[in-house]
Fold this sequence. Notes:
Elements: H1 6-21, E1 24-25, H2 26-33, H3 37-49, E2 53-56, E3 59-62, H4 75-92, E4 95-102, E5 105-112, E6 127-129, H5 134-141, H6 145-154, H7 168-181, E7 184-187, E8 194-203, E9 206-216, H8 225-243
Antiparallel strand pairs: 1-3, 2-3, 4-5, 4-9, 5-6, 7-8, 8-9
Helix pairs in contact: 1-3, 4-8, 5-7
Amino acid sequence: MQYEVTTLKKGLQLLDALRANGPMSLTQLVEQTGWSKATVFRLLSTLEGMTYVTKSHKTYTITELAGRPTPRLGTIENWNMVPPLHELSQELGETVYVAILQGTEVINTQVVDGKYTNRSHTQVGDRFFVHQSALGKVILAFLEADRLQEILSRLELAARTERTFVDRQLLLYHLRDIREKGVAIDDEEADSGIRCLAVPILKEGNVVAALAISGPADRLTKKRDVQFSKVLQRYSQKITSFIQ
Length: 244
């Protein structure tokens, strides 16, 4: 075929294989394609670097970027979020975050600093495994069951602090409770001394992101959880109305 780009074609063929078969190891992909191990590894490394695939426990899995029909936030929608985020930060005085799911991690896409000097200093682009923070847990809790199981099957329950959920069954019970209450709480699970509350951001009934506030545990006390949760849910609904 004239103008055919061989390397691009091979990369797309790898994505097709992962889409059709689910998670596959390097050896399985070499056997299926008939290409050299070095070629397959180089292509997978490129795809992983561009977040089209993720690697976990020696297997590669396709991500949403490679064509899974999952609702996402566009540039305009991200801009539409900015005014409510600043309003929320001003109302509560705390740092406000928006994060999205990417593979088995959540990545911060928006951060609005609060008024206090003593605050969490997580930045845009920072990543956490989904089970380690309120942002990730609330997204997990509102996913469809098959999508949740797919992610959990690839997720290594690594601890960031002594309070991080590392038991799979306990995490599942916790996620059911989050879905019922509509809010996730990170009680020093991502960082010692820091608490975080998060709620889902929905688009067309599907979770597309999470909205959260965080701050020192001695300021974001458990006694204020109900108060802050109601405020977060109000702003989440406001954001949803902007991005529908």
